[in-house]
Amino acid sequence: MKPTDTLRPGERLFALLLVIFAGYAFWESYEISGFRGLTTGGVMPMLASGIMALTGLVILSDTLRKPRTAEGGIAGLITYLFPLRVVLFTLLVAIYVAVIPSIGFLAASGGLLFVTIWALWRKCPLPALLIALLSIAAIYVLFRVVFQVVLPIGSFWR
After folding, report:
1. Among 51-60, 64-73, 110-119, 139-148, whose mean pLDDT is lowest?
2. How many other CB atoms are there within 10 angstroms of residue 59's CB atom?
3. Does residue 37 register a pLDDT over 90?
4. Is the CB of residue 53 less than 8 Å from the CB of residue 19?
């Protein structure tokens, strides 16, 4: 794979943080036993963190040579790291976790499966509903009947 000629948003910051973390890891591994001998407990951690530090410095020097992109800055980094689809699905999972106590595991999981299959597949909702229902039926049989796991029912159904 050919490296890109321009920086991606946050690439320099990540390379700098990588070097700082590797330096910290080297310091912590040095604190184990110092440079007292090749058979001491800190030799392998120092070797690993030393290699991390060297490769981090190489990566940082490469990023310092690359020209900045127009999407640089905090806004460009946030847009790059959190595309709308990722944010929406994260919110969907948060809603799923929040509704399990009230509507139960099976209903919440069925709803989550239906919405995600429909959103990702981008076809008619009927096949997505059928796949979600079949999946929930399989989960119910496997966990409730075979393994006899008590699944949360939810306060709404009581």
Report:
1. 64-73
2. 17
3. no
4. yes
Q: Are 101 and 154 in contact (CB under 8 A)?
A: yes
What tokens were used for 144?
Answer: 């409730």
| Residue for token pair 């490469």 | 62
**H-type helices in 41-83, by residue range?**
43-65, 73-81
What per-residue confidence (pLDDT) applies to 75? 84
Domain regions of the chain by residue span: 11-80, 84-157
Rg (CA), the chain: 25
Amino acid letter, 151? L
CA angle 63, 68, 72 (to 5 degrees): 110
d(CA 92, CA 115): 9
> Using one digit for the tens of pLDDT, what is the confidence trace for 51-102?
999 999 999 999 999 887 776 678 888 888 899 999 999 999 999 999 999 9
Burial pattern 93-120, b for ≥16 Cβ within 10 A else e, equals: eeebeebbeebbbbbbbbbbbbbbbbee
Report if pTM > 0.85: no
Residue (of 136, 135, 140, 158) closest to 150 by Cα position: 140
